Amino acid sequence: MNFLDMVKQHPGGVDAPAITFGDGPAISYGELLQRADDVAQWLRAAGVQPGDRIALVAKNGPWFFELLLACCAIGAALVPINTRLSPSEIGGILDDCAPSRIVADSAGMAGVPGRFGSLDAAESLGRAPEAQGAAAASPQRAEATAVLLQMYTSGTTGKPKGVMLTHANIASIAQTGARALGAFNPEDRALVCLPLFHIAGVDWALFSLISGAHIFLHGEVQAAAIVDAMVQHRITKTLLVPAVIRMVTEEMERRCVHVESLGALCFGASAMPEELIARARAAFPRARMYHVYGMTESTGMFTALDPAEIEAGRRLLSCGKAFDTGEIRVVDERGKAVAAGAVGHIVYRGPQCMLGYWGNTQATASTVLDGWLQTGDLGSLDEEGFLYVRDRIKDVIDTGGEKVSPAEVENVLAAHPAIADVAVIGCPDPRWGEAVTAVVVRRQGEHLLLEQLRAFARDRLAGFKLPQRLVFMAQLPRNASGKVLKHVLRDQLGSGLE
């Protein structure tokens, strides 16, 4: 089923509130669908064809949903781009996806290189005078295998890859997640504050829209604003990463408040330490807590831990079992299932598995083998089928909910005149989950401070990719082929990751 049809058939009715953005008025489902239709007509009038890409360089706003639903109607694909990336990074993604139109808010416009010409303003999308008279056209119903979302993710090569997610992928996660994570319904008030250029935020919004829930949408993550919204609007469901949960609970403890309306608190990206779970349960005494696991290539989450496990103090490091629509295995290097408790490569098969990487058949072929998505993560299954993620094969760093490619950062830092050799790893950090750590071999006679290194890289890297720690070594440990042994670095730095 087309996702637009799923939203139209939600159980809440056209007059029910769909989205409240910041302090603005509520937008009803009827108004949202009309806006999406206006945007679809405007895109058609601008010459957008089925299969074309529409880039969105913007923070969270109603424009994301207007464009997503409009793309459903005309058979185009939406490409949300991280506004925190540097202009060169944004330009590289735009070069790769070759969009028919580029839509941006004020923050996004500042990041798009001038060579891409004029941009469409997100805030007035489809409502310019020249768009109002656009002739209506029959909806272009896309095939289930047609791409609806193309989201960019970085791997260890450092080059972002466009993950193609189809209408079937989106329909599957929307229906499965809405059912599995607290049974979304029209009475729910769902807080969406994670960025919609990442799959986690998108998933949470999808669950809400097909259920007729009321989305309270924030432009960015701010702990004080999150607490204000939870108290004022009596939020019933939200999805956060542990780093944000820590900031929110600290803010609530400072104010001496708790939120009893919250019935479901979903978290992912990493497990939560027992200390933080206890604080979260005190802040949200009635919330059931769901630990989920997934990635962009799987249209987001595909496992969830039953809240009863957390409530009983069991399996706190597990991310649960696969959704009933898919299956997971832990395999050895030959693709054979390993014994319960043994560590191996986590693989997933199900309707949420991506179509592939845009324009990169080689990477697709090595990532999806016989229908099984190779997650790049090491983990284990216990005897009852609960999954534990142990480490990342690809060394990608998770910092505050953002994923950072060490190779990308290394490529930038290596150009510094004081650096002879460099490796980048993630080290445990109580606030951000992992801190981007640069391990540097200095050139003879050179001196280097962390702030100098950050200043050098700031024009080429997004802020969250800049090193948070700087460590010096006389030489980096390497194997016979010259590859840096990052597990040795972690051991030497006492990270405990391996």
Question: Quick check: average pLDDT?
Answer: 91
Our count of helices gives 16
CATH-wise, what's the superfamily of the largest domain? Answer: ANL, N-terminal domain
Q: Any low-confidence stretches, pLDDT <50, length ≥5?
A: none
- Which percent range fits the helix content? 25-40%
Report the major sheet.
9 strands, mixed
- CATH fold type of the largest domain: Rossmann fold
Write the layout of secondary structure elements.
Blueprint: H1 3-8, E1 17-21, E2 26-28, H2 29-45, E3 53-57, H3 62-74, E4 77-81, H4 87-97, E5 101-104, H5 106-111, E6 120-121, H6 129-132, E7 147-153, E8 161-166, H7 167-180, E9 189-192, H8 199-211, E10 214-217, H9 223-233, E11 237-240, H10 242-255, E12 264-267, H11 274-283, E13 288-295, E14 300-304, H12 307-311, E15 321-322, E16 327-331, E17 344-349, E18 356-357, H13 361-367, E19 368-369, E20 372-381, E21 387-392, E22 397-399, E23 402-404, H14 406-413, E24 419-429, E25 433-442, H15 450-457, E26 469-472, H16 486-492
Parallel strand pairs: 1-10, 3-4, 3-5, 5-6, 9-10, 9-11, 11-12, 12-13, 25-26
Antiparallel strand pairs: 1-2, 7-8, 8-18, 13-14, 14-15, 16-17, 17-20, 19-20, 20-21, 22-23, 24-25
Write up what this structure looks like.
By secondary structure, the protein is an alpha/beta fold. It folds into two domains: 3-381, Rossmann fold (3-Layer(aba) Sandwich), CATH 3.40.50; 397-492, 2-Layer Sandwich (GMP Synthetase, Chain A, domain 3). The protein is built from 16 helices and 26 strands. A nine-stranded mixed sheet has the order 2-1-10-9-11-12-13-14-15, sandwiched between helices. Strand 9 (189-192), helix 8 and strand 10 form a beta-alpha-beta unit. Helix 10 crosses helix 11 (274-283). The longest helix has 17 residues, at 29-45. It is globular and about 65 Å long. The chain starts with a helix and ends in a 6-residue tail after the last helix.
